[in-house]
User: Fold these one by one.
Assistant:
Number 1:
Amino acid sequence: MPPTPILALAGFMGSGKTTVGTLLARQLAWRFVDLDARIEETAGLRIPEIFERLGEPAFRQMEADQLRAALGRAQELKESVILALGGGTYAQPGAPEFLRNAGIPVIWLDASPEILLGRCMTMTGRPLFRDEPSFRALYAQRLPSYQLADHRVDSSGEPARVVAEILTRHLVPAGNAILLNGASRST
Ligand code: S3P
């Protein structure tokens, strides 16, 4: 895989994409882009409102559009970017192939459904977090997609440790870009 100035973080709700991504970007002195935040800014609505008023298919369309826009902007400006995907982005049909073809490495932040559930219970603003059975079912349904990521990192621990693991075990600096360490798949 050639050096790339963009690294995407995938993972289920509560996996720490935003927290880990913010810290990682700070350490690398890269820009942090949060796909959910981009969608909210562009739509002028919070995510629960988008789901409520426009429905999930409209949200998925915005998500796909903003993903393309974020990659395009980073490439155009030659900016080095850590891109936090939404929890469902990488599980949408064609998303892993799209990112692979664009040459964007993806790290899957993985944690057990129990840990993810514990984190999401205390937070609001997630329209797809309804109850434990549906949360677990969605996790199981999406797992095969996350397993397509280039690397898997255990994200059950403290965010700072997750970042340290990514920096020491998974990334090799290459100027203002990074290489993923080895060509290993997450499975
Ligand atoms: C979603 C996860 C959310 C957000 C939206 C849909 C999902 O992102 O994109 O609510 O489909 O799992 P987080 O994983 O950042 O909560």
Note: The first helix runs from residue 17 to 28.
Number 2:
Amino acid sequence: MDAALEAEGLVKRYGARTAVRDVSFSVPKGSIYGVLGPNGAGKSTTLRMIVGVLKPSAGRISLLGGPISRETLRRVGYLPEERGLYRSMSARGAIAYLARLKGTPARTAFRRADQLLADHGLEKIRNKRIKTLSKGMAQKVQVLAAIAHEPEFIIFDEPFSGLDPVNQRALEATIRAQAQAGRTVLFSTHVMEHAERLCERILLIAQGARAFEGTVSEALALAPSVAVLETDGAFDLAGALVPKGFAVTLEGEEHGNKRWRARLENGRGSRQLLQACVEAGAPLSLFEPARASLHEAFVALVGDKIKPSTVAE
Ligand code: ADP
């Protein structure tokens, strides 16, 4: 595998606290790669080590085929978790400034800034100062500033947070377009759905440790089967079945009917679930298998107690 990044045994300690413990993964060139986990899992710390902002307490990183250096970092675009840099610059100025810092000649940098703003429907804010823009708008500008020097490897820390659903979709399209142009994209998120839609491979971290590394389909295969059920009227299916050990949650309500989702785990298959529904006198109007989500795979892998696992080694 030709890797844009190889990280081996990464550890980061802040005093007595270990934020990242023995994390290894590798990012294939040209792929879209997701670093996932709940808040505080160690995602930002991992990304900061990759881009040389933080020095690992232990472990090894190979970035674009070599050690982290000024030269390799020029070929990398990084959106940090902290936003709101260069607040008094114009949108155009900030994009061009970051491109120039990474070695792009001034004329090219301004031309690219104009082109990127136009391509993303942002011409009207071209000359507006960053501090006058809405949070979401400023974030879009910062995303463009991170890619204006046309890096081979793009690293975005929580790029979707702070964006509304329309702009989240637009950012997904930007990420896909970058990968289609042959670039490698790595992003972190605590929202599994973005990774599920975009990524080939993912790294799941929980409490600083690797819980899973592999393809999205490998992760989904580790999730329990799922069933979707509908009941008429006010019947409380979770109230009836959770005490019997079934993992049933309410998904939504429509026209007085309730929609439920059940995880089929611990040897309780769809036959046992159906039987329990009948015994409870549930007024079922729908019972069908469903595709598990990446979130459900994550819960299955990590659960309540955080257990780093060695699956998909
Ligand atoms: P994530 O990006 O997944 O939300 P972080 O990498 O930001 O997680 O943080 C991982 C853990 O390290 C958290 O418990 C956080 O409180 C801690 N942490 C992060 N930065 C520092 C720091 N500079 N000093 C001390 N602890 C830190």
Note: The radius of gyration is 23 Å.
Number 3:
Amino acid sequence: MFFLTAADSDLRHDWTLAEAQALFALPFNDLLYRAHSVYRRHFDPNSVQISTLLSIKTGACPEDCAYCPQSARYHTGLKAEKLMHVEDVVAQARRAHAGGATRFCMGAAYRSPKDKDLDHIIDMVKAVRALGMETCATLGMLTPPQAQRLADAGLDYYNHNIDTSEEFYTEIISTRCFQDRLDTLEAVRAAGMRVCCGGIIGMGESLTDRAKMLHTLASLPEHPESVPINQLVRVPGTPLDHAAPVDPLDFVRVIAVARVLMPRSHVRLSAGRAQMSDELQALAFFAGANSIFYGDKLLTTENPEQDHDRQLLARLGIHAEPQAGVTARRAAADALHAQSRAAT
Ligand code: SAM
Ligand code: DTB
Ligand code: SF4
């Protein structure tokens, strides 16, 4: 006899948009109770996965993403920098690992990487992986062969955000379309990498746009393993500098709905933490956020001081996910990857 447990039935790929909207419409306590219950069935609620970001190629990006300080179209005072040297990247990764991060995410301000840049980035991936860290990269759009090269080099995760709903996307970016994002996500999956995909709250999107964004993510053939929820960092010089601030409780609602729709994913309380109170972050962790970016800088903007984060996590009794968990997750993923390579 086969019994379906509550945890099994939490995992669904057939959520309707109306169900996602109904979750947003729940009274706050009802939504948080539901999200936290789901969270406990799938994770240790006192453990957080820790990633550190590094901008390996900064600014001068040809895209026009209205939120981004790295677009060449806006005057944000950011100094553009070429692709970093492999040794410098590895030195930063080593520092992040010693500080407690288990995943290292390398970000580059590209529309899509050139193959010769990918050669260097592959060297970075191999060297960071050799430290025992999980590796992640966010380099813009990828062709299927590029995705395969990164997967074969051992890149664990690829970050590529859908950012918002398909409808609102055209108001934020004109230089690519929503389908381009989905195509890259498909190439990343097909190559056997794990997916990190989320969005930004606070760009002037409606509640329906938020529900649609999460519904799109939860309707992918496999849920992204990591779902970063960013609060817009308003950067002077970008078109969204004066966007209206998000109601903090509405931000927590997004985390909670993401947790319910994608129960086994790591939901990351991502950009914007430097502008959040400790209490708001505590609520977001209760609602099911179980991943953060750690380190004084995101890509180009500020993140909370490491000391402050250490104290906050200690006050909440939340510990960093142990390295053993990371090692086991990688071994399982590597075995799957080897199997699928053997089958092709
Ligand atoms: N160029 C690549 C791309 O767009 O996919 C990778 C780097 S890009 C900076 C990665 C992500 O950072 C974006 O998709 C967006 O979600 C997030 N981001 C950029 N600027 C932000 C801001 N001001 N506030 C919050 N998130 C931001
Ligand atoms: C994600 O979702 N957020 C990160 C990471 N993935 C690449 C980037 C946040 C960037 C915030 C603006 C900056 O620091 O430039
Ligand atoms: Fe370029 Fe990425 Fe910034 Fe868009 S979000 S401008 S693609 S770096």
Note: Residues 22 and 44 are 27 Å apart (CA to CA).
